[in-house]
Design a protein that fits this description.
single chain, 374 residues, alpha/beta, 7-stranded mixed β-sheet, 27% helix, transferase, nucleic acid binding
């Protein structure tokens, strides 16, 4: 793998989850450009630096030992990447403080370095939380590859931080440098809420939750066909998002024991709040994690999943395939994985490679609901 070379460090970095013959790097030209700019501007060893949305730790690990570094993001795999990459490069595990996006990093910060996230609502919430957290003379610098940099990102920086200067593009990357100015305390529009008629629920969604404004069409196709059980069942909602699948299943299956897991901290935060609102103190296991990687083998009777088809800006079915493998390992013999997916993704054929039986439960012109039996 290529070495990430900047004025601060030379690092051997890997992505998470690890793939054999990984085709993608754990860093890009936007990371390089951002660190070069920070170095040119000067970075005192006493500076407090906040790094937002660092994909796999390239920024934070580079700055470790050069300043007091806090990293914050919404990805469990991003945090795992940071920790693994610190270790790979003989850097202390505590060289960077990590704060999940479900919490607020405590300043004051002298530098804020932002990788512009795919979800602009997450960027907006992060900028809102910077109010009162910037030291005098602070710099706020956002970076992205030009193809992933919408005009709205600069508008948000200007709205919440101050005047923005866009850099020239270098290696197809660009920086947005915002000069902080005094502004009135903003009111966050997040979390958002929407109502569901069947089952009757109000669902709360923090800023980075998938389909924050309303139920996504895949889940809408899945909900009427969820299985129901009156007996005790051990069930996981894998990639739970705001928790709607697990909550809907639990409402119709009063003896079920639910585990909800997602790699987004804001999704887990949303799902926990929605579970309490719908099911009160009914026991629940919920965690941010790498899917079912931590789940004991043969410990589940049923897995429900609406698998993602992208990781940040990278589109592909590698995460879904990994979830199917994890589900198979976690299920008891005879246990079932129920999924919804776009017809064109061909999940039926993929599941047949892992499970002894695969059947179509329902279909719409765009989606299929499949049941796979271990």
């Amino acid at each position: 793998m290529p070495i990430f070379v900047t004025p601060f460090a030379q690092l051997d970095l890997i992505r998470q989850p690890e793939q054999q013959a990984e085709p993608l790097q754990a860093f890009d030209a936007a990371d390089e450009y951002l660190l070069k700019h920070v170095h040119e501007q000067g970075l005192p060893a006493t500076a407090r630096v906040l790094v937002l949305n660092d994909n796999f730790g390239a920024l934070a690990a580079s700055l470790a030992g050069h300043a007091q570094v806090t990293s914050s993001g919404d990805s469990y795999l991003g945090q795992q990447g940071l920790q693994i990459n610190l270790g790979r490069n003989q850097l202390p595990a505590d060289a960077v403080t990590f704060v999940p996006a479900s919490a607020t990093a405590q300043g004051p910060f002298d530098r804020v370095l932002i990788r512009v996230p795919k979800t602009l609502a997450l960027l907006e919430e992060q900028l809102i939380r910077l109010h009162g957290q910037l030291a005098p003379g602070a710099q706020v610098i956002a970076a992205a590859m030009v193809k992933h940099l919408p005009r709205a990102a600069g508008d948000l920086l200007e709205q919440y931080i101050g005047p923005v200067q866009a850099s020239l593009a270098v290696k197809k990357a660009r920086l947005l440098v915002a000069t902080p100015e005094t502004k009135a305390a903003p009111t966050s529009p997040y979390p958002t809420r929407y109502h569901l008629e069947q089952p009757k629920l109000e669902l709360l969604n923090h800023a980075n939750v998938f389909c924050r404004e309303g139920l996504d069409i895949g889940t809408r196709a899945f909900l009427p066909h969820l299985p129901k059980h009156q007996r005790r069942t051990r069930v996981a909602d894998l990639g739970c998002g705001n928790g709607v699948l697990g909550i809907a299943y639990a409402l119709a299956s009063p003896q079920a024991e639910l585990t909800l897991v997602d790699e987004s901290y804001m999704a887990v935060q949303s799902a926990a709040q929605n579970w309490r609102a719908a099911l009160g103190e009914r026991p629940l296991t919920i965690r941010a994690g790498d899917g079912l990687a931590e789940q004991e083998a043969d410990s589940l009777d049923l897995v429900l999943c609406n698998p993602p088809f992208h990781q940040q800006q990278v589109v592909g079915d590698f995460l879904a395939w990994r979830m199917f493998q994890q589900a198979r390992a976690a299920l008891v013999k005879g246990g079932e994985l129920w999924i919804v997916g776009n017809r064109h993704l061909g999940y039926h054929a993929k599941l047949k490679k892992l499970f002894r039986g695969v059947e179509q439960v329902a279909a719409t012109p765009k989606f299929v609901v499949l049941k796979a039996i271990k």
